[in-house]
Structure formats: structure tokens, C-alpha cells
Amino acid sequence: MSKKVLVTGGAGYIGSVLTRQLLDKGFKVRVLDSLMYGGEPIIDLLNDPDFEFVKGDVRNEADVRKAMEGIDCVAHLAAIVGDPACAQQPELAKSTNLEGSKLLYKIANEMGVEKFVFASTCSNYGKMEDPNSFVTEESALAPVSLYAETKVGVEQFLLGQPKSNNTKPTCLRFSTVYGLSLRPRFDLTVNEFAKELALGRELVIFGEQFWRPYCHVYDLARSVVKVIEAPEEVVAFEVFNVGDTTENYQKKMIVEEVQKLIPDAKIKYVSKNEDPRDYRVAFDKIKNKLGFEVMFKVPDGIAQIKKVLDDGFIVNPDDNKYKNV
Q1: DSSP assignments along 301-315, one per residue
Q2: Per the CB 3.0–4.6 Å rule, which of 187, 198, 275, 304 could disulfide with 323?
Q3: Residues 6+ apart with CB under 8 A from 134
Q4: Are 58 and 47 in contact (CB under 8 A)?
Q5: Exposed/middle/buried for residue 202 (C-beta within 10 Å: 0-12, 13-18, 19+)
Q6: Taken in order 124, 129, 134, 139, is the CA torsion positive or negative?
Q7: Which DSSP symbol is given to 94?
């Protein structure tokens, strides 16, 4: 019998990619999503006999119980994602990201689910104390946004559960995401820079010196599959940074990669010395324990964005549907 996975937020930017990867691997997949951004990214999957969809909210107990029936593993991606979206609707962010996640785990444990994979974020590290060092899973967490605060809160809740619980949690701290998805987004650093310059616009960049790790949406989704497939004792109650140590970039470095494809790109740098987030991350643990290595790097993502815009895949890339705010 193939395992059944519940993907919350499965119609989203990462979730729509993950859902397909799981189906391709032979899992049965049920998606729980409120369709805040529409259902187009997964509409074709309604033709797949191994796919089910439940429209609902992770904060609603009846919705969660319905979605959790017969599930072996949960991949919990549903959230109000990103600093701007959380700042715009703080109460919704807190109730969805924190309270919704707790409710989801409690019901999963009550219903005998085996694994609970939580999509967290490297934003939890905030600002590095030593600008020449790399943070690891053991480093202090210093969230500087409501988004990261909610993720840290869920991590603490999950990792504080009794080891004897039915449902074993794993926390994945995702790098800053980029790349192509069934639900395209152009409000993400790499995608936005590539889009603006591919369209021949001047790109204004604030705080070009700050560090951040980046990881392709396809690879972030693959990390969730890796955890679901891994032996329980390897991943239970563990935290993994997800990305590649060579994929830490300053904004200026991303622009330089874009300029290799668009040499006449128009760039304007605006000095900004105070950015609350500045961190370089090491990814040795996920590589050593799970054998995880990325398939895409930032230059690949830039080339993909340029191609879809040059070839006219997306008619109006400025449409608000390609943003979270």
C-alpha cells in the first residue's frame, strides 16, 4: 500500500510543486488549501486518481479532521508567507501560522499520523553576530519579523512534544526561495530582479551587501520528499537547514549573475546600512544525514525566468496574482 500524504497549502508556490513530486514518486496525495490565491496550479490534478482535494482552513478543526482521515504523513506548508504579507495582516498571520499549525499537529497525533514535516525558514536566524561566519542548526535564533516569530513558535512547540508521541515532527528551515512553479511569483528577490531586468527596466536595489541563502522551489519541495522517505529515526525531532552552502548570496552578487545574461541591465544601488536580516547559512547536516544536494542554482533560476518572459509564457508578469501582497 502506498503511503498517503496530506499537503497543506498544496495549491501554493511550493505546495503545487511538492504535490506533483509526491504523485510522481507513487504516493497518494490529499491537499488541504483555502485557495486564497486560486486553484489553477493544481486544477489538472483533479484528473489523477491518486489525488484528492479538500477545501478548508488549517484553523478550522472540522476541516482539519476531514483532511487528516487515513493520512500517514503531513507536509505542512500552509501559512501566510513572507514579511510583507504577515505585516499587512498580523492577526491572520498569527492565527494561521502559529495556532493553525498547533491544531494541525495535535489532530495528526491524535489520529496516529507517522510524520509531520514543517516548512520553517532560515529567516529564524535574523542577523548574524559574526559577519564572517555561517549559522548552523545549532545557532541561536533571533527572528526580526512576525513571519519568523511565528515559525520559531511552531518549531518550539513541535520540538517540545513528548518523544513518545505517535507523530514525529521534522522542521525544515527553507532558504529564500526562487524559480518556476505552477503558481509563479515575482515578489521574490531572484525572480523579481530577473523579471525587472528582462523587461528592460531600471532595477533599484536597497542594501546590496546583506547576505541570504537561496534555494530553488523544486529543490525545497525535494527536501520534503526526502524527509518523508527517510527512516523515522534519522529525521524524528530533527531540524534541517535546506539549501546549499555555496548558494549564499548578497543582492549585488545576484545582480551580477543577471548581468551575465543581460549585459546592458540598468541598475541603481541605494545605500542602506540597516537590514534586520543578514545571515549566511551552512547546509552540511542535510547533505550528510539525508544525502540532499540541490539540482538548481541561482543562475539556473535567472535563466528560467528570463526565458519564460522572453518567450511570452506569461502575458502580464506585473499582475498582482504573481505576488503574495
Answers
A1: HHHHHHHHHHTTSSS
A2: 187
A3: 245, 248, 280, 281, 282
A4: no
A5: exposed
A6: negative
A7: I
Residue 108 and residue 74 in contact, taking contact as beta carbons nearer than 8 Å: yes
- Select from 285, 277, 257, 284 the least CA-distant residue to 131: 277
Distance (Å, whole) CA 249 – CA 212 = 6
Task: Give the bridge partners for 232, in sequence order.
Answer: none
Q: Is 82 left (phi over 0), alpha (psi -120 to 50) or beta?
A: left
Cβ-contact 105, 145 below 8 angstroms: no
Q: What's the maximum distance between 2 C-alpha atoms anywhere in the chain? A: 59
**At residue 64, what is the residue type?**
V
> Residue 229, Cα to own-chain centre: how many angstroms?
19
Helix axes 298-310, 189-198, angle to 10 degrees: 40
Residue reference for cell 496550479: 41
What's the rounded Cα separation, in Å, for the pair 174 and 292? 13
Could you read off the pLDDT of 49-85 as tens digits, one per residue?
999 999 999 999 999 999 999 999 999 999 999 999 9
What CA–CA distance (Å, rounded) separates 201 from 193? 10
3-state helix, strand, coil in the chain (%, to 5): 40, 20, 40
